[in-house]
What we know:
CATH topology: Aspartate Aminotransferase, domain 1
Strand content: 15-25%
CATH architecture: Alpha-Beta Complex
Order of helices and strands: HEEEEHEEH
Number of domains: 1
Largest sheet: 6 strands, antiparallel
Strand order of the largest sheet: 1-2-3-4-6-5
Number of helices: 3
Number of strands: 6
Distance between the termini: 27 Å
Helix content: 25-40%
Amino acid sequence: MELPRRRGPRPRTSSEGPHRQLDRQASPALWGRLIYEATNLPHVQEGRSQVSPAPSRALLFPDLSDIRDRSTSLAPNPPLEPVHIHGVTDTSVHLCLPSERAAAVCELGWGEPHGYADHDTEIMVYGPRDDDELALVLGIVQESLEFAWTSNQSG
């Protein structure tokens, strides 16, 4: 997916844990649509994040009980957690992408490196501010899921 440069200034984010977006969040309606669309993507199950506080929503791969590539999961233990979406007061998304793609997404203004990352694959993507941004953020989420799914298949 070709990603344009994100419009406007970057949102402020926390300098202390948990890593979160402090302003320019998605509206509650856009956040709800993000959650709905993301939790209905193929192979994923919505669940509780191992590493992000409630009310974050994790996108999990319960069918992949063996995490072959640790750089594809935000959580250290199964099930594989390539993505979690923070609650409605934050609306940012933590996810994993291949290193080069993660750097490009950040360079184009869509996110920043995860403040507490174990791998350079982990980034924060800012919450979408309109329908066009929602489509692009969902595309980035899909890329993360595909990266994790293909990197952890047996065979």
